């Protein structure tokens, strides 16, 4: 008998509860063990959750789980950072295995937590922290056994993919699409984490850390959101045959890596372009096996609950011991320098006569580009430059104020020079 | 020290050889063992293969491997059916684990071979037999631990996907595209297995067998190839916004399943449509986790070699014991009855005046449809009917001779009635 202590009973926690309860036969077959949820930490145990939880299982006291010698595995699905982190630390120090869905905690503390898990002979798994139902972490670990992985990129945030899909397919403005995302429950009350790219940044930092054997912290991830993309941009994207997607990307060359979250223009008949609504897609490039892509639901009760329970199974089967997170201190972040590409840049001006000044500065910048002037906007496509250079071009060379511009890297295998492009 | 005996040193065998040889450190780290290729069975040991194989490792005598008590794992990558099958049986009976890339043997004999493996406490893994570098079998087994999987579909054959891509993107005829596939090494000298769908049928039969716990033999798979698709069809597909793809599909309802390989029309902005050239994509629908898709290289030395070596690692780590292939005799094949959809049907006639007879028979068939007459062809779209019914319509109701028609099921979430369609 394996006893679980579950911290939190929100969306993911309910999913875990239902799978463990209603699929006990399958779990027994997969692990050889009976699995029981012995305790669930909730904020208010009197609240009716529509779940048939037995008397005495819910508790408001974390000690009932963390100090409970009967509990083998602690499942952290409460969210938040500081409290969740301290509970995970306590659980590991008490010799309990930990399964968590908490990308914020893992992204911040993975190096320390893995060390703690190892010292205490415990498993620490967090499949559900990246891309919900997609088993990307387990597959990445498998791939890494006999592949060097330098490049990872993915649509890692369902909320922004939903918004961009609506903006592109149904010509909604960013604000209209965001409001629809709220209506469908895809966006949080405060959508900052999603639309500014911070959520995706945590996820790509976790994947990059595993792939490179370094702790890529969220501070190493350049992060641009999608809030500056306007309807006028979408019109231009369509003319050029591109679809905007918020991608988390990481790449390594020698002992440097770059990680970034930014809106990218992908070709309209590409795999990434076909990912609609709240789905996720992760692309991993292994040096033996080439490109491998994983597509599925990036969030939701059942898919994320499924990921958590798969981790529980692997803990019981001791599959966690096959992968050891080892830190290579010689690898360091090179910010956005390793990412280069043609870039789309739209600059908006208040008055038509302000455009000349922008064009003058553009010419003085030394960056080759093509541009066309619209009534109150200038649409620019630059030569191949780095992600750092486009940022400098917009903010320093052109001296643009926030909200007056948007830029996106163009990812295209066929397009290598601005000469090929008619804008 | 783990000693491997490798049967065959063709494309896949060379890939395995190179990974085992040049990634020995990674393999040691992943398994804790030194791994050595002790013997390789070849037809002609004097042939120069450009591989640096040590003296005495190559042999032309299978007994050197199958009767060799030092060999722990037999890796069958020789292809063919009867000989490969008999060697696998001998290896298992001798208590050796078996890793094979042989879809023909597994598709035919998986039930018996799994039984034999179990009786002899051996592992039997065959990741490379389906979709090359994509770890679909391992992931499917993982998903099945806590999901019921009723539906699987995939682009499982790179050769036909290459041909269809060239026909659609570059307006080549089937014959021109096939000749290009030969030129690039994507097609065998005799392409029958690929273009008639038999290769994909073996693969979907293996996946269906695992998902349903039955032995779906290749005889249970309805199989239509792509040889009847003509340029005139591709023109019509484009007008309707569809892309033709050869899909292997299996579905289950209650205790019946249907498995089929057939060209299907998918929407032009769908994931399947974006799979180009020789890539594969497999879609699995789990009842907890929803849709999960896996994309990657379906063939080639490195990707397939990678899949074989991953199996070797899992044998060493004893991961094979987590999945037991159990046969449920209550599940039986219902041919193509479980697949239904609108169908595209093109009928070609020798003389313009023959069209009237076709239209008359069509009206008499009782199948609702829309049609338009071209010079020597009739383009028909039927109401939702089963895969068995469309076959009967073409062959019996219309009495069409082979080579005078082509039909494709239309897979579209938005299109449910022929009234929506303008042909």
From TrEMBL, chains A, B:
Residues 135-313 form the Homoserine dehydrogenase catalytic domain. Its EC number is 1.1.1.3. NADPH binds at residue 103. It is an enzyme of class 1 (oxidoreductase). Its cofactor is a metal cation. GO terms for molecular function: homoserine dehydrogenase activity; metal ion binding; NADP binding. It catalyses: L-homoserine + NADP(+) = L-aspartate 4-semialdehyde + NADPH + H(+). The keyword NAD applies. Keywords: Amino-acid biosynthesis, Metal-binding, Methionine biosynthesis, NAD, NADP, Oxidoreductase, Sodium, Threonine biosynthesis. Residues 8-127 form the Aspartate/homoserine dehydrogenase NAD-binding domain. NADP(+) binds at residues 7-14. Signal peptide: none annotated. One of its GO terms (biological process) is methionine biosynthetic process. This is Homoserine dehydrogenase. It comes from Andreesenia angusta. The gene is hom.
């Amino acid at each position: 008998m394996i006893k679980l202590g579950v911290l939190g009973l929100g969306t993911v926690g309910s999913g875990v509860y239902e799978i463990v309860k209603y699929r006990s036969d399958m779990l027994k077959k997969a692990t050889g063990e009976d699995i029981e949820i012995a305790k669930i930490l909730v904020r208010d145990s009197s609240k009716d959750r529509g779940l048939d939880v037995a008397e005495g299982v819910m508790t408001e006291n974390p000690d009932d789980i963390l100090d409970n010698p009967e509990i083998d595995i602690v499942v952290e699905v409460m969210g938040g950072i500081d409290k969740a982190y301290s509970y995970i630390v306590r659980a590991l120090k008490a010799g309990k295995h930990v399964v968590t869905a908490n990308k914020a905690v893992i992204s911040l503390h993975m190096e320390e937590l893995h060390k703690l898990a190892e010292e205490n002979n415990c498993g620490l798994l967090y499949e559900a922290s990246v891309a919900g139902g997609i088993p990307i972490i387990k597959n990445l670990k498998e791939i890494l056994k006999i592949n060097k992985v330098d490049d990872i990129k993915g649509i890692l945030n369902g909320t922004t993919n939903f918004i961009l899909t609506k903006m592109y397919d149904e010509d909604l403005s960013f604000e209209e699409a965001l409001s629809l995302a709220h209506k469908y429950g895809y966006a949080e009350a405060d959508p900052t984490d999603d639309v500014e790219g911070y959520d995706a940044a945590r996820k790509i930092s976790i994947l990059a850390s595993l792939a490179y054997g370094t702790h890529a912290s969220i501070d190493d991830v350049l992060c641009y959101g999608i809030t500056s993309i306007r309807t006028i941009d979408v019109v231009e994207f369509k003319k050029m045959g591109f679809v905007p997607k918020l991608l988390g990307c990481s790449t390594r060359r020698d002992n440097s890596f770059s990680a970034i979250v930014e809106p990218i223009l992908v070709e309209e008949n590409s795999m990434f372009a076909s990912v609609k609504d709240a789905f996720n897609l992760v692309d991993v490039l292994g040096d033996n096996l080439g490109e491998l892509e994983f597509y599925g639901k990036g969030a939701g009760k059942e898919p994320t609950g499924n990921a958590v329970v798969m981790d529980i199974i692997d803990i019981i089967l001791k599959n966690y011991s096959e992968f050891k997170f080892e830190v290579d201190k010689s690898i360091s972040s090179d910010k956005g320098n390793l990412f280069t590409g043609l870039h789309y840049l739209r600059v908006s001006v208040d008055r038509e006569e302000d455009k000349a000044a922008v064009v003058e500065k553009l010419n003085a910048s030394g960056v080759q580009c093509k541009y066309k002037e619209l009534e109150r906007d200038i649409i620019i496509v630059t030569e191949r430059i780095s992600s750092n250079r486009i940022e400098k071009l917009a903010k320093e060379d052109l001296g643009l104020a926030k909200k007056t511009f948007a830029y996106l890297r163009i990812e295209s295998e066929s397009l290598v020079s601005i000469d090929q492009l008619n804008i």
